[in-house]
Design a protein that fits this description.
The chain is of the alpha/beta class and about 350 residues long. It has one domain: Alpha-Beta Barrel (TIM Barrel). Helix content is about 45%, strand content about 15%. The chain is built from twelve helices and nine strands. α2 links the parallel β2 and β3. α1 crosses α2, α1 packs parallel to α12 and α11 packs across α12. The radius of gyration is 20 Å and the shape is globular. It starts with a strand and ends with a helix. GO terms for molecular function: oxidoreductase activity, acting on paired donors, with incorporation or reduction of molecular oxygen.
Length: about 350
């Protein structure tokens, strides 16, 4: 059953809106969701992506940390193969100093971009293969633990140290991330929104079955990141969903565009694409608050998880604010009724 609600903010581009506005709204959303009782607020990393303008989660997290008091802040994620493990550890040690005890470091192996952009970020074509090693390095530096004798990093520290430590999460949308998280005894996040749920149960089952307790985590802990939108009525939710649906239909044709006004989002689609939209509406986690909470509960039960990080795109920022408020309020009401 769904116990905890969290947020994944991707800073999706909106037609007619500046990228500066989009980034500013991420902070407003974090403040809004903290007031509503959300557990975490994570921000993503993409590069050279016309649809998603969030490129530096660690910078955005620092700004949000100054505007919030309780909610956990995290990256979903830092694409580790692009960077030095030491530099990432330093950045997140600074974040932990700014917001002690509420920093999550979600790391992934995917490029978060096209292959050419990934090569410009890190010219080493074998960088992704070092991901498991980098995860180990991160843990040692974040926890200020010694590297083995003879290791070139022995004696090098990631400052500032402190009494609290960022929590490392492994992100994935396939079996690979699940295996890495299970092997190292770390918490795991499955990107349900990337695969539309395909492979989610297999990856999560693999994680739970193969989890090895570590000094960082005694028992497996998993979250799914799922795309969802709710409104006061199912009709209004489906109407707002048009913008996201059109974005996905265009993306499948290789077109990366900002979100369109739902009033015009279905214009120019052929009959087959309109049928695709209808199928998307049937499968998506959208509807009125009762419907969406029911879908999320069913999803959690099926996947054996208790926390969902919700991603909501909408052309109108107020629609996003309302969606997060609707689902938080009905979730709290149900929890109080069953307590």
């Amino acid at each position: 059953m769904l116990k905890h609600l969290s947020v994944l903010e991707q800073s999706a581009a909106v037609m007619g809106q500046s990228a500066q506005q989009t980034i500013s709204q991420a902070t407003q959303l974090a403040i809004h969701c903290e007031a509503l009782g959300y557990e975490r607020f994570w921000v993503s990393e993409h590069h050279s992506h016309p649809s998603i303008v969030g490129t530096a989660p660690e910078v955005l997290m620092a700004h949000i940390a100054a505007k919030t008091q309780r909610i956990r802040l995290g990256s979903a994620g830092v694409m580790l193969p692009h960077y030095s493990s030491l530099k990432v550890a330093e950045q997140f040690r600074v974040l932990d100093a700014l917001a002690p005890g509420r920093i999550d470091l979600g790391v992934g192996r995917a490029p978060g971009s096209d292959s050419r952009t990934a090569m410009l970020l890190n010219p080493d074509p074998q960088s992704a293969a070092r991901f498991p090693t980098q995860v180990q390095e991160l843990q040692l530096w974040l926890n200020d633990e010694d590297f083995p004798v003879g290791h070139p990093a022995r004696g090098v520290h990631a400052y500032p140290t402190g009494t609290t430590t960022p929590e490392v999460w492994i992100l994935g949308s396939s079996d690979y991330g699940a295996q890495v998280a299970a092997h190292f005894g770390l918490p795991y996040v499955f990107a349900h929104f990337i695969t539309d749920g395909v492979g989610a149960k297999e990856a999560l089952d693999l994680y739970f079955e193969n989890f090895k307790p570590s000094k960082y985590l005694a028992e497996p802990k998993a979250i799914i990141c799922a795309w969802s939108l709710t409104a006061d009525t199912e009709e209004n939710a489906i109407y707002a969903f048009r913008s996201r649906a059109r974005n996905k239909i265009d993306r499948n044709k290789g077109l990366l565009k900002p979100m369109q006004d739902p009033q015009y989002a279905l214009e120019g689609l052929n009959d087959q694409e309109l049928k695709t939209f209808d199928r998307m509406c049937e499968k998506a986690l959208i509807g009125n608050p009762e419907q969406v909470l029911g879908k999320l509960n069913n999803l959690c039960a099926d996947l054996n998880v208790q926390e969902v990080a919700i991603i909501t795109w909408a052309y109108d920022f107020q629609v996003r604010l309302d969606s997060y408020q609707h689902i938080a309020k009905i979730h709290q009401a149900v929890n109080q009724a069953t307590a």
